[in-house]
Specification:
The chain is α/β, with parallel strands linked by helices. The protein has two domains: 232 residues, Aspartate Aminotransferase, domain 2 (3-Layer(aba) Sandwich), CATH 3.40.640; 123 residues, Aspartate Aminotransferase, domain 1 (Alpha-Beta Complex). Helices cover 42% and strands 14% of the residues. The strands form four sheets. It has a seven-stranded mixed β-sheet, with helices on both faces. Strands 6-7 form a two-stranded antiparallel ribbon. Strand 4, helix 6 and strand 5 form a beta-alpha-beta unit. The chain starts with a helix and ends with a helix. The model has no long low-confidence stretch (mean pLDDT 97).
Amino acid sequence: MVDLVTQYEKIKPEVDAAIGEVVAKAQFINGPEVHAFQQELEKYLEVAHVIPCANGTDALQIAMMGLGLQPGDEVITPSFTYIATTEVIALLGLTPVFVEVDPATFCIDPQAIKAAITPKTKAIVPVHLYGQAANMEAILHIANEFGLFVIEDNAQAIGCDYTFSDGRTAKTGTLGHAGCTSFFPSKNLGCFGDGGALMTNDDALAAKLRRIANHGQSKRYYHDEVGCNSRLDAIQAAVLRIKLKELPRYIQSRQALAEAYDQAFRHLPGVQVPQRATYSNHVFHQYTLQVRPEIRDALHRFLEEKAIPSMIYYPVPAHRQKMFEAFHASDLNLPITDFLTERVISLPMHTEMQADQLAYICTSVTSFLEA
């Protein structure tokens, strides 16, 4: 699905030198590489504060802790997402409220959010799924109307541009009270292990998030609140500094590959290529087709036989997962979510795709769907 080996080979001299320098200096925790990456990502995102942490799941947890969410508080989130988004809600004793997604973008439906609000609702967690934004202008309007926090799960869409109705643009992850992202190796901006970050324009919240990520410390051995130990190590920061410079090229490569896939598949019967939102570009963390449910799994097996990776993101939505039985989530009626889980299939999407590889994938998929 992602060719990290070829990607590494293209930046190998820089990466090897950067890692070697970290090892030579033996400054593995925090240190100059982490601070430099933080500042460079702040500049790229045009956000006041980036708080590096250990992974994207930690980022979500730290954001919810930093905003003061308490056990029993309700958090509205899509069910059609990776489990980390929703798992953290339950981990903190909060109540996940699963709502429907937009069938065109796969992102959370603002009208479904509004319909799910109760006196216990305290936050909304929109997920910018597969690489394009949820309808943040509508979501922020609802949040302002009802006094709710907005925590963006931006793990799949770093570098995505959101355009407001007045023409103003901003990067996803910088629009809500806090944004969270992951630097898992397969992400558009990925390191060589685990890593994550939070983003915010709120000075006071940023200071609190930094404390929470570092054992609740305001200074060493002085702990103001209960926190956790969640740090981005210096080797990962060194790798990310190099990859951040490449991110615009990576995004352009993904977009070009998506256009090639579109050209190959858009006229096939029973196939829906990814739709693009009018308010957002698409950075294509995943390229996801919709096909008829009776052939989806057969296509998945066929591609495996052809040595072509494909993935189903996600076969079981969060509200149907066993871990949420205590919330009686499986009783929910989310027909669009169920519809998508039966139809989606994602194809290889990475920055180093060769022309012959692309042709082989397109020919194979087409031959199956036209058979």
